[in-house]
Amino acid sequence: MSKLCLISILLFSFFLISKTFAGNCAGGNFSNLAVTQDMINNTPSLQNTCFNNSTGNNLNFSNKNLIDSSFAGAQFTNPKFDGADLSRADFSSAVLSHSSFYGVTADKAYFISTQLINANFNNAKLEGSYFNSADLTESQLKGASLKDAFMIRSILNKTKFENTDLTNSKFSGALLEDAYLRNANLEDSDFSNANLSRADLKYAKLTNAIFSSAIWTDGRICGSGSKGRCD
Question: Helix, strand or coil for residue 220?
Fold first, then answer.
């Protein structure tokens, strides 16, 4: 069994265990419903609320307390979460078209296999969050903090990470073609087997970053054990 496969299994096991402690719908249950703005506005507390497999258009959750809430499998168009507290929230397998998460706090949140194309996460705090197999094509994470985040096998083509803190994050097997990583902090991060074709790494901090078997910005295959640069 490969090291990458073992890591994925362990992360998924932790994910299943964690879900037993969060998203128990104590704050309310809107699962499988067509959610309206009135439902949101008339709910006293949205903490630990379930929106699993729900649908909705132009919903505004800005500045709400959504700690431990679950949006697993939800399908929202143009949702707005700006400034909300999404710590430990679960968005796994959700489809969130043209979503805005500007300035959110979403530490240890779950975005596993979530569709987040063209999402706005600028200035968001996403430390220790899980984006494994998520699609963030052309999304923006400028000035965000993703320390210790997991983006294993994520699709990050043309995504902007300018001035983003990616310290000790995991990008194994991720697609980062044409990604913009100028001035990003990649110290101690793992890009093993990632595709960095045409990515912009100008002024990025690469100290101890692992690029083993990654596809480099110029199309070269980095050697096994490449660290801090592509050898």
Answer: coil
User: Which residues span the domain enclosing 24?
Assistant: 1-149
The pLDDT assigned to 222 comes to: 98
CB-count burial class (<10 Å; 0-12, 13-18, 19+) for 14: exposed
**pTM score, whole prediction:** 0.89
Strands 75-77 and 49-50: unpaired
Q: How far is Cα 73 from Cα 93, in angstroms, rounded to an integer? A: 5
**DSSP calls for 189-214:** -B-TT-B-TT-B-TT-B-TT-B-TTP
Structural contact between residues 208 and 194, judged by C-beta atoms closer than 8 angstroms:
no
User: Are 112 and 26 members of one domain?
Assistant: yes
Assess whether 11 and 115 both reside in one domain.
yes
What pLDDT, on the 0 to 100 scale, is given for residue 24? 82
Element (H, E) at 12: helix 3-19
Quick one: pLDDT at residue 62?
A: 98
Query: Is 194 found in the same domain as 138?
Result: no
Cα dihedral 140→144→147→149 (10° resolution): -30
